Amino acid sequence: MATITSNKACQDIGPNVRVLKSTGQLRELQTVLRDVETSRSDFMFCADRLIRLVVEEGLNQLPYSPLSVTTPTGYGYDGITFEKGNCGVSIMRSGEAMEQGLRDCCRSIRIGKILIQSEADTREAKVYYAKFPQDIETRKVLLMYPILSSGNTAIQAVQVLKEHGVKESNILLLSLFVTPHAVKSVTEEHPEMTILTSEIHPHVPLHFGQKYFGTD
């Protein structure tokens, strides 16, 4: 069993924290998603592209095994096949924006959901709903949440997964934008999980969910 790592595609900036390598394409997508003048249709188009980039790199972090196949011309080819037993979990509602990107890459993957909201007076994250595959404790989990600002919601979501038997080291958090504060908070609370994002920046597009779902 092994995992694919690409120095060209992503960079390790600390223990279990990986950031997509900055490119012109990536920077343009990040710019469009921040621009107050961006229309909703353009926003959704660029968001889906960025989600796909993050999901594709996330899949590179999953374990695989060698596989030899025979081509239509009769030649043998030594390739790989990804291990079975992966699933996605979206943190509602904004995390649901990432589900289609995952399904576009893994057609039959199972996806669970968590609903976590912050209490108005204490700002404490509280779990209202959680539904997972019955055997989630045996799976690698791609946890999807596009914007990490404080990190409180992600921290609570990981805790719920652990309470359902998921090993912390089997959780890969896929996020589009993450603040330095969130990285510090999440990794201190759950040091064995992995975070993959397109960017770590003090100012993240907090309007993402509202803009994407048209509730702004």
Keywords:
Rossmann fold; 216 residues; cytoplasm; alpha/beta; 9-stranded mixed beta sheet; PRTase-like; nucleotide-binding; GTP-binding; nucleus; 3-stranded antiparallel beta sheet
In brief, what are we looking at here?
It contains six helices and twelve strands.
General description of the model:
There is one protein chain. Strands 2, 3, 6, 7, 8, 9, 10, 11 and 12 form a 9-stranded mixed sheet that branches. The chain has one domain (10-213): Rossmann fold. It is α/β, with parallel strands linked by helices and 216 residues long. Helix 1 packs across helix 2 (40-59) and helix 2 (40-59) crosses helix 3 (99-105). It is globular and about 65 Å long. It has helices at 24-34, 40-59, 99-105, 152-163, 180-189, 208-213, and strands at 2-3, 10-14, 17-20, 63-70, 76-82, 86-92, 110-118, 125-131, 140-144, 147-148, 171-178, 194-200. The model has no long low-confidence stretch (mean pLDDT 91). 31% of the residues lie in helices and 33% in strands. Keywords: Cytoplasm, GTP-binding, Nucleotide-binding, Nucleus. Belongs to the UPRTase family. Residues 22-203 form the Phosphoribosyltransferase domain. One of its GO terms (molecular function) is GTP binding. It is found in: Cytoplasm; Nucleus.
